Amino acid sequence: MSILASLQQALADGDIEVIDLTTPLADDTVILELPAQFANTRGLSVTEVSRYDDRGPAWAWNDLQVGEHAGTHLDAPVHWISGRDGKSVDQIEPGRLVGPIVVIDKTAEVAENPDFDLEPEHFEAWIAEHGPLPDNCWVLFRTGWSQYAHSRDTFLNADAEGPHTPGVSVAGAQWLASNPKVSGFGVETVGIDSGQAGTFDPVYPVHYFLLGADKYGLTSLVGLDRLPVTGAMISVSPLNVVGGTGAPARVFAYVER
């Protein structure tokens, strides 16, 4: 039996489960909000074109307006100044968007401290316990934060000091960016950096280092609690926007049962 035939059979038999890691995109999906002095993107807006009526008797369809960085979305290198000469969404090789998943689970730590940041030692500890990172892997940061996705206030978790959401330190971002095994990094929060990353040097270091190193980001993921620490595969399918700095994406995990 061929490899693809074996995969098809495993899917049919339920030996491989497909898990949707995507936040449903609606007009009330919580998106990133920058400080007032900066321009902000839009969420989803849907305008009906026709619905089995005089405008189109046998069909229904809508017009959509949506920001590139709304909901579960991919960040391409050109999203950040450090990657301005890098790839747009349509230029990313498809093979970079499919690969093994590495889950870093810090749910307990984040429950105690919403400002928790991954440091290099957390990645090194994972490797010491589970072995080397696989080639072309996507590191997914499990925090439990997706439980707050239906409430703007709790999901953004902002006060006078700014947002308080988990992420990665400057040193941790450099570690991720410099590791040749890593293709991408995904989070449950609204952005790939921590809420307090605007106070770091450089600001928003995951954006700065990761995208500057031709690696990619995923935000607003759900269902990470259903994934094993190792052994699953990811498939990232952003809208293939020509010149896009990012795009809403459907993200699937394939888990062997």
UniProtKB/TrEMBL annotation:
Tell me which InterPro entries the record gives. Answer: KFase/CYL, KFase_sf
Query: What SUPFAM superfamilies does this protein map onto?
Result: Putative cyclase
Q: Which domain of life is it from?
A: Bacteria
GO MF terms listed in the record are: arylformamidase activity
Q: Name one GO biological process term.
A: L-tryptophan catabolic process to kynurenine
Q: Name one Pfam family in it.
A: Cyclase
Instruction: List the protein's name.
Output: Cyclase family protein
Q: Which organism's genome codes for this protein?
A: Gulosibacter macacae
Organism lineage reads as:
Bacteria, Bacillati, Actinomycetota, Actinomycetes, Micrococcales
